[in-house]
Amino acid sequence: MSAKTIEQMQEDTFRPNPVLAGVMINEFKINNKYRHEAQVHVEKILKPYEHVLDTEWKDLKDDGINVEWVQVLNDGWEKKEVRKTILYLHGGGYYLCSKEFSRNVTSSIAKKVDARVLAINYRLAPQNQFPAGLQDALAAYLYLLNPSKDAGFEPLNPKNIVISGDSAGSGLSLALSLAIRDAGLPSCAGINCWSPLVDLTHSTPSVSDDECIDYLPNLARGIDHAESQVRKEFKEKAAALTAKIKNQNLGPKIWHDSFDRSYRLEIYAPNEGLAIPYVSPMLAESLGNLPPLLLVTGGDERLRDEVIYFAHRSAEPTKYKGPSYNAGKFEKSPFQTPTNTTLEVYEEMLHVFQGMEHPSTTRCYERMVEFINRVTSALNEPLPPSSYNCISAKGEFGPLKDHHKRVLNWEKIGIVPNITRTEFNITSL
């Protein structure tokens, strides 16, 4: 258990990091009308799962989403033929960090890509449960497509927009891309993901590998914090939602017996919702028909296997069909066209290594720039075919190693590991 409370951890990760020289920050709020528009779409796609979710996400407690433009001084963006725009979603396990904390990253992206970055503070757990963060991310995307009259820019062509993030922010980016696809909204140009968290069942081998040297803890064992008001309120609400689900006697739409615990496995979503595709994108019925993807993971990080498995499911959806309890659902999906996917595994690198000074970081940024320029190009040239790459510290490209491929034959995809956990016990209140 962490000695700090959730509130203390959040406060620590809300502090601003420095901005690169030559970059300016313009803070503002996106009006709640965009949240209301997003709510219509979110309610539609979550209709099959609404009975296992609380409705508090619809009760807006503020007057808008805190966001900021991160832009190079005098960039002339408004007059460019291709107004490259990055919608950036920060990481932090869905309960930590902020756009301010990510300014060193977002300002670097703005400079290197020659683009404007819209970074947002989406609502965080446990104060705000799924799908509050998804609603906010979708609201920001809708804002870019149809900005308010005083926004200072004309509506963006979605083919000028790339959604990007790190860790949970990358997971949210992929959840957003699924939501956009499933709601029938205009697709963005591409998705750039660093170390995406795409499996909240934490079912892949690398997550629980005792020999893993990653600084990220074993998420399958859970992360708990010192008792506090937020933790107490979360446990009370979690217990109430669990009781409501049981009393309705409807059962979740997607379920495995490994989800059946006396405690909440995650503070982001209930156990009954862990396999909802917008919670754990890796477990979606299909990962086809998504915009081009650049998926990056460290070779020595805990999330490596889920990123590798996600990449194969998106690039080869007919071959890799997800968890056993979803058997037969892919065949009924209207989204069976392979997604153009580039997977890059950087050897000896850890979770979100892009914050380190290392040759692999430099190479990763270069590849990101190449990807964004390619998918937003006005020339509409064909993209290279999907590929799975292992990149050495020297920048040498090669195929995946044998141990990278083991997850492709893993029979416990989407099944919560049988590891005893006692945190967030909601039956002892």
From TrEMBL:
Segments forming domain Alpha/beta hydrolase fold-3: 86-211
Keyword Ligase among UniProt keywords: no
Keyword annotations of the record: Hydrolase
SUPFAM superfamilies associated with the record: alpha/beta-Hydrolases (SSF53474)
Presence of keyword Hydrolase: yes
Gene3D superfamilies noted in UniProt: alpha/beta hydrolase
GO molecular function, one term: hydrolase activity
PANTHER family reported in the protein's UniProt record: AB HYDROLASE SUPERFAMILY PROTEIN C4A8.06C
Protein name: Alpha/beta hydrolase fold-3 domain-containing protein
